[in-house]
Amino acid sequence: MKEHIEELRIVEAYLTDMLEADRDGDYDAFIKHFDDDDLEGFTKNTFLEDVELMREDLGAYKDRSFLGSLQGFKTDSRSNCLRFVWRATYEKNEALIILGIHEKDGVWLVNENVVSK
C-alpha cells in the first residue's frame, strides 16, 4: 500500500502513544494529538472508565497489523481527513482500531478513535 505513506508514519506514532497512554491510564498523554474541538465531553473520568472497560473485555494490548486507509469525513473546515484501520490483538480478544486524522495549520490531529470489538 503506497498511498498516504507519510500520514501513516505519523498516525502509527500517534497510535503507539495512545496505546501506551491506555496502558498507563494517562489521560494527558492520550489526548496530546487530538484537536481540542474533538475533546468536548471527553473527560479524564470518561477516559479512565473506557480504559477499565477495555481491559475487562479485551485484556492487555499485544500487537497490531495495518489493514488500510480510507478518506475521512470531510467538512467545510476539514477538507483533508483520513482514517486508518488496524487489526489489533489483545490478551483476551481481537478488535479493529480506527484512527481518524485531519490536517489543521499544517499539523495532523486526531479526530476519531474507535476500538471495535
How would you describe the overall organization of this protein?
The protein starts with a helix and ends with a strand. It has helices at 5-24, 27-31, 44-58; strands spanning 61-71, 81-90, 94-104, 107-116. The chain has three helices and four strands; from the N terminus they run αααββββ. It has one domain (5-116): Nuclear Transport Factor 2, Chain: A, CATH 3.10.450.590. It has a four-stranded antiparallel β-sheet, covered by helices on one side. The mean pLDDT is 93. It has 117 residues and is α+β, with helices and mostly antiparallel strands. The longest helix has 20 residues, at 5-24. The chain is globular. This is DUF4440 domain-containing protein.
What would the keywords be for this entry?
117 residues; alpha+beta; DUF4440 domain-containing protein
N-C termini distance = 25 Å
Identify the overall geometry.
Answer: globular
Q: What's the CATH architecture?
A: Roll
User: What proportion of the residues form beta strands (DSSP E)?
Assistant: 35-45%
| Helix fraction by DSSP (H/I, runs of at least 4) | 25-40%
Q: What is the fold named in CATH at topology level?
A: Nuclear Transport Factor 2, Chain: A
Count of helical segments? 3
Q: Give me the side-by-side strand order of the main sheet.
A: 1-2-3-4
Class from helix and strand fractions: alpha+beta
Number of strands: 4
Number of domains: 1
Report low-confidence residues grouped into runs of 5 or more: none
